[in-house]
Each structure stands twice: as structure tokens, then as C-alpha cells.
Amino acid sequence: MNRVEGKVCIVTGAASGVGREDALLLAREGAKVVLTDLNDEAGRQVAAEIGANALFIRHDISSEADWQNVIKTTLETFGRLDVLVNNAGILAVGSIEDTSLELWQKIQRVNSDGYFLGCKYAIPAMKDSGGGSIVNMSSVAALAGMPMFCAYSASKGAVAALTRAVALHCKHQGYRIRCNSVHPDGINTPMTQAIGGVKPIPQEELDKDPMNRMCDPRDIANLVLFLASDESRFVSGAEMRIDNAQLISGI
């Protein structure tokens, strides 16, 4: 218990899915949590569930002004910043032949530009707090590519490369700020269910199959908690797969 006691964490995309589980677990383990999302109603509900140690801010992660506001409000409210979980993102089907330039740019703007802005504005605040941890949500698509998710794969590849650049920059500058990327395969969330066009399947049913590619959002949250905590103090620039060995299975 209390693995992140006293830390102040920002979690983007915290109104549902993985972000919600991240925020709830970090709060249970002692953190003060700033939840951000475009979904005001659901985001405020999660913040209310956490209580006094949570704050919700409406946030378009592709907006530089919104990022400046999130960091400013976090510091004004809680006095410091220790952890940033860049979790928000969008997903759309489209091969290289099917993807329009408009869709490509939309996905890059959110998934790539949004994470760049988060890192850019979190680092100065973390420096003033004596260090911190940035967790960037990427995907196995960044490592192997997914032909039907061309723009998404490219955006998550950018996130992985950004993570390495940020980790090295912070190390060389002596900031004591770590930066790691998390690479899931499938996650059993409303967003992925909507893409697949299938009815929600209970995780217990999925887990009966040892070949299952769909993890529970709580599996991601457990890894995020480790990376946010001081237990991972020597882990930086890592690409952490959470995919039931799918990437290396050859199937």
C-alpha cells in the first residue's frame, strides 16, 4: 500500500478505460491525481469517486494552451508534479491505401503531438519538484506494425522514439526524470470493442484462453503504478510490452 504516497500525478484520458483504472489505482496507492479528458461528465464522476485528492480538468491533448493550463492548474492546486501518464489517444482503421491525409494528420495530432506537448510542459514542473516519471502509452503496433492501423501504428512509433529521446535528454541534463513507454496488444475497453464491432466480453471469459490477446485495463494500471513509483527508480527509456508474448509468437 501507499506505493506513490504524496506524489502528484496527471493522467490523460482518465474518464474511461485504461486511464480510469490508472487514476483509481494511483489514488488508492496514495497519490493526488489530476484527471484530464474531453468527456466532462465521465471525468468528473471518476474524480468524485476518488474524492478530495482528485481534480478533473477538461483537456484536448493536441492543444498547447490546454497543456499549459493543465500544468498551471496542477501546480496551483497541489504544489508539485511527480508523474505524467500520457494515456489519451485515438484509434481508427485504415491501411496505407485507405487512410486519407486528413485522418493521418488527425491521429498524429492527438497521439503524437499530444504526447510531445505533455512531455515538453511536464519536464520543467518535474524539475522543480526534484524529479519524476513520465509514462507514455504506446502499443505493440509501434514495434511490429499493424497493416490495418497504418496511421495509428506510425503515431505509436513516434511515441516510442519520443520516449527514448526524452529519457536520454533528462538523464544527460541530470534532471532525475524517467521516461518509459508501455506497449500493450489488445485491451478490453469500450474503444477496442467498438473497433471490433463485438459485444463486451467479460475478462474472465477471455482469460480462459491461454492465447488471449486482450488484457484487462487493470493489467496496464499495475504496470503504470510500478513505473510511477520509486520501485522503478532505475528504469528509464524502456519499452515495456504487456501482450502475453504476442509480439514474439510468430502467429
TrEMBL record:
Any one GO MF annotation of this record: glucose 1-dehydrogenase [NAD(P)+] activity
Annotated ranges, domain Ketoreductase: 7-187
Entry EC number(s): 1.1.1.47
Pfam families: adh_short_C2 (PF13561)
Keywords: Oxidoreductase
Domain of life: Bacteria
NCBIfam families registered for this protein in UniProt: PRK07231.1
Family to which this protein belongs: Belongs to the short-chain dehydrogenases/reductases (SDR) family.
UniProt name for this protein: Glucose 1-dehydrogenase
Organism field: Metapseudomonas boanensis
